């Protein structure tokens, strides 16, 4: 079993910054891509940023130049540095990871989700 635990959400004024962290733990063989999604009230969940195990990062147009995703592979942790926050960034932010596990000699790859952390940006 794999768990993703997020931290770092909170309330911040417009123009401020927050840093989200997400640590993966459990029976992990390898982690392929990790990323952050968000879901605002009444809206669908959307991709914010993603970072594969190798290769370039990917950002939603709405957060480019303001948010930076990074990962520490040794710690199975992904971060999201959010600067110049806007009220429209208010949402629950979810960590996502595509994880390969080996159990009973079976190799399985699937996506896992964190429980979500609230980010509220006041105007």
Stretches with pLDDT under 50, minimum 5 residues: none
> Beta-sheet strand percentage?
over 45%
Percent range for helical residues? under 10%
Question: N- to C-terminal separation?
Answer: 40 Å
* Number of alpha- plus pi-helical segments: 0
Cα Rg: 15 Å
Instruction: Tell me the overall shape.
Output: elongated
* Total beta strand runs: 11
Order of helices and strands: EEEEEEEEEEE
Biggest sheet record: 7 strands, mixed
Structural class: mainly beta
Average of per-residue pLDDT values: 95
Task: Write a structural description.
With 123 residues, the protein is mostly beta strands. 0% of the residues lie in helices and 62% in strands. It has strands at 2-7, 10-13, 18-26, 30-39, 46-51, 58-59, 67-72, 77-82, 91-103, 106-113, 117-122. Strands 2, 4, 5, 6, 9, 10 and 11 form a seven-stranded mixed β-sheet that branches. The model has no long low-confidence stretch (mean pLDDT 95).
Brief synopsis:
By secondary structure, the protein is mostly beta strands. It has strands spanning 2-7, 10-13, 18-26, 30-39, 46-51, 58-59, 67-72, 77-82, 91-103, 106-113, 117-122. The protein is 0% helix and 62% strand.
List the helices and strands and how they pair.
Blueprint: E1 2-7, E2 10-13, E3 18-26, E4 30-39, E5 46-51, E6 58-59, E7 67-72, E8 77-82, E9 91-103, E10 106-113, E11 117-122
Parallel strand pairs: 2-11
Antiparallel strand pairs: 1-3, 3-8, 4-5, 4-9, 5-6, 7-8, 9-10, 9-11
């Amino acid at each position: 079993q794999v768990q993703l635990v997020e931290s770092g959400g909170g309330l911040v004024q417009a123009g401020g910054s927050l840093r989200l962290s997400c640590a993966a733990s459990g029976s992990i063989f390898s982690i392929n891509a990790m990323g952050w999604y968000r879901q605002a009230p009444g809206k669908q969940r959307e991709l914010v940023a993603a970072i594969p195990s190798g290769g370039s990062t990917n950002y939603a147009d709405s957060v480019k130049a303001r948010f930076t995703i990074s990962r520490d592979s040794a710690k199975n942790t992904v971060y999201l540095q959010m600067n110049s926050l806007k009220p429209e960034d208010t949402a629950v932010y979810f960590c996502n990871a595509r994880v390969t596990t080996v159990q009973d000699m079976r190799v399985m790859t699937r996506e896992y989700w964190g429980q979500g952390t609230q980010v509220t940006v006041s105007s």
